[in-house]
Amino acid sequence: AMSAALVGYSSSEEEQEQEEEGGSRGGGAQEPSGASAGRPRLPAPAGLLGDPEPEEAVSDDSSRHGGRVRGFPHERGNWATHVYLPYIAQEEFLELLELLVSRARTFVPSLAAMEEFHVSLSQCVVLRYHWIEPFVRSLRERLAAFHRFFCVADQVKVYTNQNKTRTFIGLEVSAGHFQLLELVSEVDGVLEEFDLPTFYKDPSFHISLAWCVGDLSGRLEGPCLQELQDIVDGFEDSAFLLRIQWEQVRCKSGNKYFSFPLR
């Protein structure tokens, strides 16, 4: 969803903030399934044992990130990690985004537009530094046989994160849900290998468009949501624009990005 700086704290904090948006929709939280983060039973690769951990978050100064609070305790050596499908916004999509955000701001003036767009395939989880390489290798193996596919993201929905500290406007996937679930089951398999929390049990796949601090879902649902849906439905070429072919899965861990092309 949002832009993430590549240095220090914001690297893992912003990713946490981005991923939390998957938490719940329309008030009911989707409880994450799976075990809590624990140590995977894997030896650390020899070459990584003594490596420094250059870009990990060290400070916890909330004034540097808009007063947001991280959703998991920070420790040295923890790398916030997120698996997702990146969506490259074309000019027309950004025009639609501008229309939607300016209309929604008449209901919630504090809304901020996203600068990056994606569909999440995992929660934000914490990896130890020496787990990154085997985690990525396992993802690559599981995703190697997966084919490219289309989905349609054209239903405006309001989301809150699990602890109700942020509200999001997103475009929910209305077609392609089955393939997304299949993809998530592959990613979940990797997370389970590392004793990490798997994705939400009954996920609402979506591209987040805008967000604000606090639970303002009450102001955004109802008349606002209907007006936003009307904008999407009436937007020129929206049927073409919001039919997306996914060509790769991406994993971000701290400041590192890994791409997994689909066949």
Automatic annotation (TrEMBL):
GO function term, MF aspect, one: lyase activity
Gene Ontology biological-process entries: U6 snRNA 3'-end processing
Keyword terms of this UniProt record: Hydrolase, Lyase, Nuclease, Nucleus
Highest taxon of the lineage: Eukaryota
CC per GO annotation: nucleus
Gene3D superfamilies: Cyclic phosphodiesterase (3.90.1140.10)
Pfam families for this protein: HVSL (PF09749)
Annotated segments matching region Disordered: 1-71
Biased composition (Acidic residues): 12-21
Catalysed conversion reaction: a 3'-end uridylyl-uridine-RNA = a 3'-end 2',3'-cyclophospho-uridine-RNA + uridine; a 3'-end uridylyl-adenosine-RNA = a 3'-end 2',3'-cyclophospho-uridine-RNA + adenosine
Its job: 3'-5' RNA exonuclease that trims the 3' end of oligo(U) and oligo(A) tracts of the pre-U6 small nuclear RNA (snRNA) molecule, leading to the formation of a mature U6 snRNA 3' end-terminated with a 2',3'-cyclic phosphate. Participates in the U6 snRNA 3' end processing that prevents U6 snRNA degradation. In addition also removes uridines from the 3' end of U6atac snRNA and possibly the vault RNA VTRNA1-1.
Full protein name: U6 snRNA phosphodiesterase 1
Name of the encoding gene: Usb1
